[in-house]
Amino acid sequence: MPSINIHDHYGGNIQNRLIIREIVNAAYKHLKLKTKIVLSVILVSDDEIRELNRTYRMVDSATDVLSFPTDGPDNEIGDIFISLDKVRMQALEYNHSEERELAFLTLHGFLHCLGYDHGNIEDEERMFSLQKEIIESTRFKKE
After folding, report:
1. Residue 116's pLDDT band (boundaries 50, 70, 90)?
2. Following CA atoms 51, 54, 57, 60 in sequence, which dihedral angle do they give, to the nearest 10 degrees?
3. How many CB atoms within 10 Å of residue 95?
4. pLDDT digits (tens, 9 = 90+) for 25-82
5. Is the dihedral of CA 52, 58, 62, 64 positive or negative?
6. Fewest CB atoms within 10 Å of the CB: 99, 114, 124, 131?
């Protein structure tokens, strides 16, 4: 199973931690991964993610999720930053729960850390199809 380090800059909502662990574990099983992996998930504000987006992607706006894949020691696969402000806003916009939105964004970031991308149409179809398969196999499927 994956080792997941969660850092909540909002103060540590236990429910968020459980959601993150549940969706990463579901994806790990769905993908039939065998090696132990280490992943960090950092929950931040729009201001924090905007600064990261500006610094690392030269885009001066807040985004919902940023992934930084690594080939680190001890099977570290990367860091995922998720804006909890965007989780709340997008849950309302897409008319589903904040739990589902957090699970979806975590899954999206996790797949990026594993090397999936959506830079072209073929890769996008592959990644988004896999996201849908995984999310639909959990309690986070569209309510």
Report:
1. very high
2. 120
3. 8
4. 999 999 999 999 999 999 999 999 999 999 999 999 999 999 999 987 889 999 999 9
5. negative
6. 124
